[in-house]
Design brief:
Shape: globular
Distance between the termini: 35 Å
CATH architecture: 3-Layer(aba) Sandwich
Strand content: 15-25%
CATH topology: Trna Endonuclease, Chain: A, domain 1
Number of domains: 1
Radius of gyration: 13 Å
Number of helices: 4
CATH class: Alpha Beta
Structural class: alpha+beta
Helix content: 55-70%
């Protein structure tokens, strides 16, 4: 639970600062797939992510690849831009 509090607290702070300074930019919370499975891949985790409008990028540490993004359109565009580099 402490990890979740820290991650979402930091995300909220960074989202506030980014929205204030450059509201056109999107913020994502990147988490390893094992962390996602432990903290976000259940009903409570999904409800929390939705209620707080958290954009997630889930990555596989061993493969070094993104496995999942949040379902928002901006997440898909940002991921496309990132992977095109």
């Amino acid at each position: 639970m402490r990890e979740l509090e820290q991650a979402l607290g930091r995300y909220a702070l960074y989202r506030f600062l980014l929205d204030r300074d450059d509201p056109t930019r999107a913020l994502f919370l990147a988490v390893a797939s094992e962390v996602f499975g432990r903290l976000f891949d259940d009903a409570d985790g999904r409800d929390l992510v939705a209620a707080q409008h958290v954009r997630l990028i889930v990555f596989d540490v061993e493969k070094g690849a993104v496995t999942t993004t949040s379902s928002s359109t901006s997440a898909g565009r940002a991921l496309d831009a990132f992977t095109a580099r």
